[in-house]
């Protein structure tokens, strides 16, 4: 498998089938970049629980699907 960078996200690509798999977790800086906001604002959203995150050992990672949910709440005017 190799990694392919598409719009700031790394996708795993299976050489045989050519299928891509979206990552389930991403770093806070990468999540901030994907939303077009600053790192401080992203950390505020994570700390407030508006964007879900998990710890893997000592590293805090953002759940990618929670970014999509957050954007949907913004579009509906709920955030």
Question: Can you tell me about this structure?
Answer:
The chain is an alpha+beta fold and 79 residues long. The chain is built from 3 helices and 6 strands. It has helices at 28-35, 39-47, 64-75; strands at 2-6, 9-13, 20-21, 25-27, 53-56, 59-63. It has a 3-stranded antiparallel β-sheet with strand order 1-2-3, with no helix packed on it. Strands 4-6-5 form a 3-stranded antiparallel β-sheet. Helix 1 (28-35) packs across helix 2 (39-47).
Write the layout of secondary structure elements.
Layout: E1 2-6, E2 9-13, E3 20-21, E4 25-27, H1 28-35, H2 39-47, E5 53-56, E6 59-63, H3 64-75
Antiparallel strand pairs: 1-2, 2-3, 4-6, 5-6
Helix pairs in contact: 1-2
Give descriptors for this structure:
79 residues, 3-stranded antiparallel sheet
**Could you give the order of strands across the largest sheet?**
1-2-3
Number of strands: 6
Any low-confidence stretches, pLDDT <50, length ≥5?
A: none
How large a portion of the residues is in β-strands, by DSSP E?
25-35%
User: Mind summarizing the main beta sheet?
Assistant: 3 strands, antiparallel
Distance between the termini: 38 Å
* Residues in helices, as a percent range: 25-40%
Counting helices, strands and paired strands, the structural category is: alpha+beta
Instruction: Provide the gyration radius in Å.
Output: 14 Å
Approximate shape: globular
Helices and strands, in order, run as: EEEEHHEEH
Task: Figure out the total of helices.
Answer: 3
Roughly what is the average pLDDT, rounded to an integer? Answer: 83
